[in-house]
Amino acid sequence: MENNFDVIVVGAGISGIGAGAHFNLKCPDQKYVILEGREKFGGTWDLFKYPGIRSDSDMHTLGYSFKPWTNEKSIAAGPAIMDYLEETIDEYELHQHIRYNHHVNTANWSSTDSKWHLSVKNTKTGEEKKFSAKFLYMCSGYYKYAHGYEPEFTGSENFMGPIIHPQKWPEDLDYEDKEVVVIGSGATAATIVPELAKKTKHTTMLQRSPTYFVSRPDEDLLANRLRKIIPSKVAYLIIRLRNVLLQQMIFKRARAFPERAKKVLLDMVKQELPDEIVDKHFTPSYNPWEQRLCLIPNSNFFEAIKDKSASVVTDHIECMEPNGIKLKSGDFLPADIIISATGLILESFGGVKMSIDNKPIEASETLTYKSLMFSNIPNLVNCFGYINASWTLKADLTSEYVCRLLKYMDKNDYEVVCPIEPLNLEESRDFLTDFSSGYLQRAAEIQPRQGKEKPWVNLQDYVKDWFDIKFKKLNDGSLHFSKNQK
After folding, report:
1. Is the pTM of this model over 0.70?
2. Does 156-340 carry CATH code 1.10.3720.10?
3. What is the rounded distance in angstroms from the CA atom of residue 182 to the CA atom of residue 166?
4. pLDDT value, residue 486
């Protein structure tokens, strides 16, 4: 027996929960289901269990447009974010729409009945189920949930202690009074190090090359004050708009004036740490915003370095030995536990095997349309957030676009919508090539192609996307609509 819906949403993380709320607000007539492969909602915020897990964006932009973030901390811990998501599920009555332990294996578009047909496995019982829908909305994130990026280290089999990737953090790990080495220099490492340093004998962050760090308070004083004198929704809107414009300004100025931006960022770190430490361990070889900036709440990472409970080493690994890591410089780092914070593995379509009339399709064979649809793939929208701003900003816009598109199709009796790649399109580099982060570079080849002009380009610009998605006409000549056959 096949479970039939108007819309199937894949994933009950921050994007999928937001999608459900948008449907209830704007498309209450749509019969939809949210399929979640794990046994709980939350996606990233439920998957990662490492100490100190927190947002690396402010919650006034990582939160939903329709639900104010009212917690005093704007850089929030994972449990607070999970509470916020649970409140959203309760407020918008999403429990009845979410099916947990439903892992989508395959999705095939059938031209015969103009529907998506999904093969779904119940991860508890092993039962295979069939689902179908007129429209498929992928909200499964952009990285592989099964495991992170784990490079091979020479001699790792000789190390006597555990080697742990943060994506598979054991909740019963005892690291008190232990020597811990965290390999990596990104947001995860910067989060874990100061938290571990509270209990370990010593925590060392081992990096091949430095990253840009920015410290800011974890509370937004203006936001907290505004909520006391004006309605929370109005305060939230004001702070959200301020933060969006500030993020965009900083990003664009950093890319336009990299040397100036570099000096400003390094001068800020030099107010926290001695110049010689900054020069050696906190001065990247790349320009600002060629990789995402690492946000440090309340300077906690810098404070751990200053009180000597943590340190940073910039070097390459020669090999792992039974009691630590031998570096190419000849130095040795003693370790009881090694944390491999070496990044994520990106994947397209959330790992779902996609096909059209049983012919396999890959994202890399398509052209991006407004960074939310793919050329020649009908009735499919994919939620992909921003690299240079909060993920949810784009997730909100994408859900608004889906609602607007579905209502337009119903009003005009359209059954199928599909972006059609124009002839003689001049292609441009994928937007990911502008970012040098390892996890992005490793995935550049699996991403859809893009053109030089709208709508065939991933703008990574919230303000432009906001106007395009809210006000540009849907039938723009690039989308092909098909009438119902009656």
Report:
1. yes
2. no
3. 10
4. 45
